[in-house]
Amino acid sequence: MKIALFGRRLLAAAVFAAMPLATHAQVLTVVTSFPKDLTEVYKKAFEQRNPGVKVEVLNKGTSAGVAYVREAPATNKPDIFWASAPDAFEVLAKDKLLQKYEGKNPAVPAKIGSYPVNDPEGYYYGQALAGYGLMWNTRYMKANKLPEPREWADLTKPAYFGHVAVSSPSRSGTTHLTVETILQGEGWARGWAQMLQIAGNSAAITERSFGVPDGVNNGQFGIGLVIDFFGLSAKASGFPVEFVYPSVTAIVPANIGLIANAKNAELGKKFIAFSLSQEGQELLLDPKISRLPVLPAVYAKAPKDYPNPFTGKIKAKVNFDSDLSEARYYVVSSIFDQTITFRHKELVAATKAIHDATAKLHGKNNAQAQKLLTEARELAFSPIVGEEKAKDKEFLALFRDTKRNAEKTKQITGLEEYWNSLARKNYARAAELAGQAAALAR
Amino acid sequence: MSIVTSDIGAPQRRGAHTRGYTPAQLAVALLIAAFLLVFLIVPVGTVIFVAFAEPGGGLTLSHFESFFHISLMRESFWNSLYVALMSVVFATIIAVPLAYFTVRFRFRGALLIQTLGVLPLIMPPFVGAVAMQLIFGRSGSVNLLLQDAFGISLPLMDGLNGVIFVEALHYFPFILMNLVVALSNVDSAMEESAQNLGASGSRLFRRIVFPLAMPGYVAGASLVFVKVFDDLGTPLVLNVTNMLAPQAYLRITSVGIEDPVGYVISVLMIAFSLFALWASALALKGRDYATLQRGGSSLAKRSLGPLQTVFAYAWIIFVLLVVLTPHLGILLLSFAKVWSFSVLPDAYTLQHYGTIVQDSPMMIWNTVLYCGLAALIDVILGTAIAYLILRTRLPFRRALDFLASAALAIPGVVLAIGYLRTFRGVELPFTDGELLTSSWLLLVIAYAVRRLPYALRSCMAALQQLHVSLEEAAENLGATKQRTVTRIVVPLMAGGMLAGFVTSFMTAAVELSATIMLTTSQSAAPMSYGIYLYMQSAAGRGPGAALGVLAVLLVALGTYLSHRFLRSRAVDLDRQL
Amino acid sequence: MNKVSLEARNIAMSYGKNVVLKDINLVIGPGEFFALLGPSGSGKSTLLRLIAGFNAAQSGQLLIDGHDVSNVPPWRRNVGMVFQNYALWPHMTVRQNVAFGLEERKLPKAQIDAKVRAALELVGLADYAARRPSQLSGGQQQRVALARTIAIEPQVLLLDEPLSNLDAKLRVQMRTELRSLQRKLGITTIFVTHDQEEAMTTADRIAVMDQGVIQQIGTPMALYDEPVNRFVANFVGSINLVRGRIEPAANGRATFRCPVFGALDVPDGTLRSGDAEIAIRPHAMALSRTREGTRQTWAEGLIAEREFLGEFVRYTVKAGETLFIADQAHYKGCAVYAPGDVVQLGLDPALARVLPAADADAREAHAH
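YS: structure for the whole thing
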């Protein structure tokens, strides 16, 4: 009868365990895409300052978080939404899932660069700043004798072939922001050319955004395109990594917002206020977190080399246009997947052939070979969709509409299949042309 | 781990009443049926229905059409199939020689092989995957050494390769164990008669011995296929999302519970599980070759020749080393300060264990609580169902057995999706509007339902060994049916029940598929979710690994206890007879 | 078919300290049907498996057709064996089972087909070639096993308890068939059995084994009439054993003294004196109300039990302190005794056989 006894004890234990949850009235529920390293610090700090309050953290991917908030029943909405991607907040605000209220910290500047820190309509507030950049593993670089990169364009160089890692915008919101930043900073055609060359130099297109910093941290990849705190926090945690902001970057806020019909709205406001306060902002400097505070005064307490976006040290040439980003969100993702993610093998082969031919032609004057090589580059590194088409409202609308019927699905799939096969053909042809060019150089 | 419903003999009881069951038994049966209906049939039925439902009502195949229109889905579909099949292939390559050595030869290595059969199973694949990345990955220890020595590197952990590698290494014991049992049940006369007729060597093995053990192999292989096909944690941890299980998870959590594609994936996953189980049942049907005949004996064991010794030990040690790497890797990682682009970590620390003791004791407690409750439910249901099946003549007792066993074919992701959809908006009674879908209770139920088949097999086996006369004697001496059950049946079944409890507990403790979908808040999260969560950040790798080590220890302890208990139990039974 | 002889010379075998075969010497003639008879654990199956090559002797030689095969592996011996449980491979059809050995010998396909057909026809199962073993009855399985073995035309045919898995009626039928098949093929055959009736009805000669030792070799009748020791006497048929003392006399005769019958004049060639036993078959015992026969020596007894077996009645008679079995042929109107009747028990010394002294802890005076 040991089992029965054990069972009774377990049952009793279960009742005990359930009790505090059931009786506690003051529970603040936070939906967030941030890692445990960050949330744990805030949870502890807030609970300490507010005895009797329990912070319940729900870790969700950004889009999973949006879905969760949307699907939670009206009587039982979580209180806070806290994530990086501005688009997610725009979607929530548009769907009236966020609660407008005046709660900003007046000490926080209104703009970073030309980008508003807080939502002009007051649905959400910038809580930290994030820029995009390059992160590399110093040991890896040393072992492979690679120079440290400074700009996105550096990564297109043959030296970095096989050492880079990027994620796909369709799988990760932050990667989407990175790609969009490059597209906005360099322009559609140049931006894609750069992106395609970087992807051609990449060892992998990881399936999740964290796959890039993770791979750089453990030395699987040499260099990764990442959001700044991935690089900074890894460095602060002792990993042999470095991080730089290239000049073509944008600084955008990571936001926090109160969810409409929040069960504990007052507590939620208190939490937001805390997160924007001097104390709350200082927590961002925790080495495990390493994010850029929105409160300029906090940087005084930062370690020496901590990047400060308010001093202009980070060049942040790009004034991020989130409307444009949102308008072509699906198009960019889809082009990236069809021509890069799914055709990565062929793209890498073409890139390698072009690198080889370039090396062989170096210092030689062979006009025909140069012509072939230029043609190969054109084929491999041009966007599959022209800039004009990318601005076409109807074209964008086709992808943007989330309510897809069978007709539209067919249309989209048809296009995607066309891009896909065209990309494959182009890459194959490019590799062939580059091969011919290399042969001529002999 | 046989997955085929055991043959249920006719009840041995010849009660005076013609119905063959009491009203109380009927009530218990109805309660169990209701439980399974609500928590298994309806949710799974809902998933299947939604996959075929037209938005305006009516049935349609259009969701399937659009599924196959999305290239990512097509890719995921083929990738899942490819990974599952290749995992079976590699698991086979590892397991077949080991099984052959065990059965064929008299040597000490057999003990090592037995250990090999348990070691991988105590390491949840998604935990092992992280360590494998560090050791076999692109710049992992092995490749760094290879680079140094030969200038080559093996793409062992790149993309799908990594998933296949991890899964094959984790699940090969299923093939090994099934094959060893099947091979050792091959009657030596089968082999001898072939020798007598002129066959020898590998030809003998190929034509006679292996075909006879085939059903055992198929049972193991199909189990591996199903498990790999279902696994969500490993691909997620390895950053591979272009497979069906991760896609189902991502679609449902990010696109939303209404997204029909998630349901289509679910239906496909059920279909493949069923297919694999059906194939194995078919392979076993009417081919229960591998049973020793009366007066028969197992295959003769030989001593190894010198060359064979070298090969056998080389293979065993190689497999042992590879099998141990995730264990070693996760242990190193849990003590590592920084481990990056180096063969071993730079420096060691105990800090990660401090972190989890400080941050996550709740998760450990949650695991104990949830898995304990789930295992308790399983044992209670398992005992009750076993009793109803073996000791009564309830008209629908076979249906009950079938229902309880059906959970085998339902992937964790699918069950979770079914729960989220079926119970959305359902509030828990006696709470302040707390939702069932955000309560940990649902996690407990999911664990219980998914593990019920194993616990049931355990309880059935225990009850089958129990001669009915022991109960009749109790009744003869004046005990009622209920008293007989509590005073005679349950105590005598305790061994089987405990085995069922431990199996359920351990497998639930390291399951991630349903966990990741049904866990909502951090404070209610079990360890498996905690490990996954920690692994999402650079600083969390150490604590995640430390938590992983604890999980491995917990499972190892459970395995050890259940083995020990079962062995002493077997001795008891022997003595009794 | 070339008939071959088989000879075992001084074969000994043990598993560790456990001796399973001791000094086995055996000569089996070409075409002979030879039985190894003994209780379980007597070493008879071990010897058979040794002949097949599955066991190896520590010492001694095994000669088939005059060649030492001790070091030839089973698959090269060309000794066909039918296993006790038939060992039909369930994953193959009847045809495939029978063809297996021929395929291993790499015969041309046409020849294999012909031989398989012939073998199946021989056992009367030509129509069952496409079936699986599980679809056959026990008797049919046994025939397939036989067909599979004789298809390879072995030099020696070994049968390991071939009839033990069949029901009683089928067993009688099969043993006749086995016998006639063996005659037809003329193949040297050794078969192992623990059933003395089976051995006696089928075999040309029998070796009785116990505890790894061949106790006696001989024709069935010789074994029955002239068992060399108590074990053989007991194992082959039922027998009464009477303990007493022997005193040798001249001309191959001796005087045997026992408490029940007093002095008996018995045939015995050993001319040794000392403790001894005489063995006498139950049906050689006379039973009568009066002491009417002259050849017998009589003693008074009491009917203790009666079993009616149709052809005869088996009486257990208590004479003095000893129990005797006396089988009396039964026919209508013959004398019948009931338990409790006082009868005269007659023993004809000419039908008795003197055995060496039994172990001190001798068994019951009678056994089956």
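YS: worth flagging: The mean pLDDT of chain B is 82.
IM: good catch. Also Residues 21-53+351-577 of chain B form a domain with the MetI-like fold fold (CATH 1.10.3720.10).
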